[in-house]
Amino acid sequence: MNLFYYPGACSLADHIALIETGLSYRLIAINHDRTTQDGRDFLSINPKGYIPTLELEDGTILTENQVILAYIAEKSGKLLPKDGVVRWRALEALAFMSSEIHSRYNPFFRNFSELEKERAREGLAQAFAILADQMGDKKFLVSDEMTIADCYLFWVLMVAPRSGVELPEALGRFLGRMRALPSVTQALAEEGLG
Ligand SMILES: N[C@@H](CCC(=O)N[C@@H](CS)C(=O)NCC(=O)O)C(=O)O
User: Fold this and answer.
1) DSSP string covering the chain, please?
2) Residues of the chain with pLDDT under 50
3) Would you state the pLDDT for residue 92?
4) What residue ranges line ligand 1, CB within 6 angstroms?
C-alpha cells in the first residue's frame, strides 16, 4: 500500500504504525504544487487535499488519520485488541486527539491572531492534562501495550512545542520512550528527520 505524506506531518503516526505492524508499504511524498513524488495529481487521488492518505493495492483510497490507523491495525491484527476496554479507550483517545488537539494546532501552523492562539493554548493545556491523567503510570496511553493511539500521540506531542504549551511530565517521559523505539527512529529517518 502507498502512504502519501509530508515529512514530519501527522502521517508520521501511520508511518510508525506501518513499521510497528510489519505491513509492507511505500512512502510517497507530496510536492508543494500538489503533485506526488510518483508524478500524479494529488487532488485527483484525494480531493480533500490532505495527508495522511492511504492507497490500497486495489486502488481504494482511505483518508482520515483515525480510519487509516484502524485499517492498519485490522489488517495486521496488531496495535488494537479485537475487543475489550483497551480497544474502545484507544479509539476514544484517537477521536479526542483528532478533534480536541490536532484541530487546535491550526493557529500555530497558519497566520492566526494572538487571541486565537491564546484560546487554543488553553484548550491544549487542558487536553494534555487529561491525557497525562489517563496515562498515569502506564507505559503507553491506554495500556502497557502499544496501540494505534500511541502512534498518533507521539506526533501530537512531537509538534506541541510549536504551540508553546508545556507538556505534563508523564507525557514528556512518554515522548522520550517513544523516540527510543526502533520503529520511531526508522520512521523519522525515512522522512529525513533523523
Ligand atoms: N481530518 C484530517 C486532517 C489531516 C490534516 O490536517 N493533515 C494536514 C497535515 S498534519 C495536511 O495535510 N495539511 C495540508 C493542507 O491542509 O493543505 C485527518 O484527521 O486525517
Assistant:
1) -EEEE-TTSTHHHHHHHHHHHT---EEEEBPTTSBBTTS-BHHHH-TT--S-EEE-TTS-EEESHHHHHHHHHHHHT-SS-SSSHHHHHHHHHHHHIIIIIGGGGHHHHTT--HHHHHHHHHHHHHHHHHHHHHHTT-SSSSSSS--HHHHHHHHHHHSGGGGTPPPPHHHHHHHHHHHTSHHHHHHHHHTT--
2) none
3) 98
4) 9-10, 49-52, 64-65, 98
